[in-house]
Specification:
Layout: E1 19-23, E2 30-31, E3 34-35, H1 39-43, H2 45-53, E4 57-61, H3 78-88, E5 92-94, H4 101-108, E6 115-117, H5 125-128, H6 132-139, E7 144-147, H7 158-162, E8 169-172, H8 174-187, E9 194-198, H9 203-213, E10 219-222, H10 226-233, H11 248-260, E11 264-266, E12 270-274, E13 283-286, E14 295-299, H12 301-313, E15 316-320, H13 333-344, E16 349-352, H14 355-363, E17 372-373, H15 377-384, H16 390-393
Parallel strand pairs: 1-4, 1-7, 4-6, 5-6, 7-8, 9-10, 9-15, 10-11, 15-16, 16-17
Antiparallel strand pairs: 2-3, 12-13, 12-14
Length: 397
């Protein structure tokens, strides 16, 4: 597969007998030393197996959590290295620091086909600061650079951007290559109708992507708490529902622009309401009759049917963000219905944009029924806006 901009794939790089730094995204949920979901680790296995098979000496770099440039044992990559060793059935040597004498020794002891992992890159403040000294040190550990961490491609950090210019050969791993391939298709000529489904809590988090999508899509279906802000902007009374009052003018302005461009904005017509998040007494209300003591926590059955019809007719779909508080079973049905509508549409290019939507489609057991599930929430949103992600730009010749 030829990647845009002359970016090389892992198969085109000279890796035999070379030290290859692979930036991975192993920022996985860990509680009491146990990994909750190893999907991000599994996603990189094809890249790593290919490098092992070709006799590369692999140096893995990742961040985990937000240790803010300090060594915090709860953010150690030790459980990750252990899980990777299990999955690959090989030894993974973990350095006790991201850079330094210990890291250099672990790297220099590597033989062909062996793996080492540096400790959490964010234990050093140089990572997020994209510090040149830290970047040069990381670069000194390798001859070839491979980025397989799409989830961090929108961050200009030392391991995603800074070190790359100090390495002779560079390219994309299979995870990164697949992300670029599918998300690029959303920016080119697409089959229509092209529908975007956007959910989540805040208009402020999504307004930039909403506005950029007005230039590309035929319609947008909105769910989650951010729909409340749009409903209130239209003059509806939404009870105790979460609303960003300071974003009402932004919401009105967006709806006006969409109307001028003749882009259909689908908002909920009914909602599932509760007195609070833990309420199990689900009451469906029309959006112009939400009781004053209740809040909208999911889209209602009428809205589900409307969105299902829109998605059935679509030929290209981008989905980012849940329709309600899907972590609670009583508020998950709208999100699950959107996942099912995407899975049932066999004629469309269906792309799920990471984050909560990826978790939701996995929870519904439908991840393998859509065209592509992105591994990066923020990165996929910036990509579909047409922004040039620093971690991808760094891979171009």
């Amino acid at each position: 597969m030829a990647l845009p901009g002359g970016i090389k794939g892992v198969d085109e790089l000279p890796v035999e007998g070379k030290r290859v730094f692979v930036r991975v995204d192993y920022n996985v949920p860990i509680k009491a030393g146990k990994i909750g979901d190893d999907a991000r680790i599994r996603a990189t296995l094809p890249t790593l197996r290919k490098l092992i098979e070709r006799g590369a000496r692999i140096v893995l770099g990742s961040h985990l959590g937000r240790p803010d440039g300090q060594v915090k044992p709860e953010f150690s990559l030790e459980p990750v290295a252990a899980r990777l060793a299990e999955l690959l059935d090989v030894e993974v040597a973990l350095a006790d620091e991201p850079v330094g004498d210990g890291a250099r020794k672990v790297v220099s002891d590597l033989r062909d086909g062996q793996l080492a992992m540096l400790e959490n890159l964010r234990f050093d403040p140089g990572e997020e600061a994209n510090d040149e000294t830290f970047a040069r040190t990381l670069a000194s550990y390798c001859d070839v650079y491979v980025n397989d961490a799409f989830g961090t491609a929108h961050r200009a950090h030392a391991s995603t951007v800074g070190m790359v210019k100090f390495v002779a050969d560079k390219g994309a791993g299979y995870v990164m290559a697949k992300e670029i391939e599918f998300l690029s298709r959303l920016l080119g000529q697409v089959d229509r109708p092209y529908v975007a489904v956007l959910g989540g809590a805040k208009v402020s988090d999504k307004i930039e992507v909403l506005e950029s999508l007005l230039e590309r899509v035929d319609s947008i279906a909105v769910g989650g708490a951010m729909a409340n802000t749009f409903l209130e902007a239209q003059g509806k009374h939404v009870g105790k529902s979460k609303v960003e009052k300071d974003k009402l003018p932004v919401a009105r302005n967006f709806l006006r622009k969409a109307s001028e461009k003749k882009i259909a904005i689908h908002l909920p017509t009914d909602v599932a309401t509760g007195e609070n998040l833990d309420d199990t007494n689900v009451v469906v209300a029309r959006v112009d009759h939400i009781p004053a003591d209740r809040m909208a926590l999911d889209i209602g059955p009428g809205t589900v049917e409307l969105y299902r019809r829109v998605l059935t007719e679509a030929r290209t779909v981008f989905w980012n963000g849940p329709m309600g508080v899907f972590e609670k079973p009583q508020w998950a049905s709208g999100t699950v219905a959107v996942a099912k509508a995407l899975a049932d549409n066999k004629l469309a290019l269906t792309v799920v944009g990471g984050g909560d939507s990826a978790a939701a489609i996995a929870q519904a057991g439908l991840a393998d029924k859509v065209s592509h599930v992105s591994t990066g929430g923020g990165a996929s949103l910036e990509f579909v806006q047409g922004l040039d992600l620093p971690g991808i730009a760094a891979l171009r010749p």
